[in-house]
Amino acid sequence: MQAIRQLYKIGYGPSSSHTIAPYRIAGYYRNAYPECTSYEVVLGGSLALTAKGHGTIEILKKALETENIDIRYDFDCKDNVMNILGRDENHEYPLWHGLSLGGGAVSIKEYDCGDQREVYPENCFEEIKKTLRDKNTALIEYIYSHETDLKDHLKECLKVMYETVNNGLNRDGLLNQELNYYRIAGKLYQKAKTDQDYLTAYSYAACEENAAGGLMCTAPTLGACGILTSLMYFLHFNKNVDDDMLCDMLAIAGIFGNCIKTNASIAGSTGGCQAEIGAACSMAAAAISYYNHEKLKTIEYAAEMGIEHFLGLTCDPVLGYVIIPCIERNAISVLKAFDCAYLAKQLYQVKENLISFDTVVQTMNYTGKKLAIELRETSLGGLSLEYKNEKS
Ligand code: SF4
């Protein structure tokens, strides 16, 4: 498996696949060929279909620091392709073939950016458990032994998460004109002072910042960024949990996210929303269970439950914006992560879990492949289609 730090990337919203990944591909190209003054970019698959709502064009202008970009769309392409070619007055520079892989990860045929490097010899949770047994070591030690610099990286991620929520709580007004969507995180925060529902306020704050193109941390994607971000903020500012423990929680969450990424997907365009919101809920449930000092099998149960009850969840963002159903769905999911951790603890006192984490991940993979293309981040079906029909 690849490094956990790959799951926690810092970059601009609103979509890890559609803004962070294109930003990175464009950035690598610009560094390689700084003489370019104009560019030709081809976007394929979901990148083409939801480029406008997902802010891809704006992020390309930001990364390349020019408006001089000829963007073409390949709507028939099945993969999330981003090809780029640059020119100056006298030269045409090499064509690069890029792919957005989900969660901001990229592959570029002509350039090794390191996203694909394998760090863990194990590839699923059963293999990890066997290693832990054989070496008589704890899961957290196993993680840090493979990624010695992970904690420093996670501390940077926490800073971004805190800043994101602070910004989201302190901004109001119109977020999206076409949807007539106004920010409400600040109002939810004021309400939380009496009803104590801070998690919902923090989740909205993170997601509204994301939708506005703010600086974010993927966890494991930006569409699902509100879940772990709000959890970290809540535990730090409402429960005085220190950054060391929060980093450990992100690391534990990350190993489950990594198994999902390796054996299924964390991209809505590949596996539907179960792959984003389901994955983040699973990771958060594992983190909460770890924080509660549960045994490994209870942590696994919580993580398994986090996916199981999101299986089949479709990705159909209205008008292509990461707003409806995404923002509300994040708030539901962070609350559900607490339910999963609680229920796993309760159930394990009377029964074994009959579905392993690896089994539910395989099921997610199977289910994602069965989802129609209209329901995988193309905005061609589901809520997006019904919304358009109602408005027309
Ligand atoms: S519906 Fe889910 S997977 Fe799709 S963009 Fe929204 S959060 Fe991401």
Q: In a few lines, what is going on in this structure?
A:
With 392 residues, the protein is of the alpha+beta class. The protein is built from 16 helices and nine strands. Iron/sulfur cluster (SF4) is lined by residues 223-224, 268, 273, 276-277, 315, 317, 322, 325-326, 329, 377.
Describe the structure.
The structure is a single chain. With 392 residues, the chain is of the alpha+beta class. The chain has a domain of 93 residues: D-3-phosphoglycerate dehydrogenase, domain 3 (60s Ribosomal Protein L30, Chain: A, 2-Layer Sandwich), CATH 3.30.1330. It is built from 16 helices and 9 strands. A 5-stranded mixed sheet has the order 3-2-4-5-6. Strands 1-9 form a two-stranded antiparallel ribbon. A two-stranded antiparallel sheet has the order 7-8. A hairpin with an 8-residue loop joins strand 4 and strand 5. Helix 6 packs across helix 9 and helix 12 crosses helix 14. It starts with 9 loop residues before the first strand and ends with a helix. The relative contact order is 0.13. Iron/sulfur cluster binds next to helix 14.
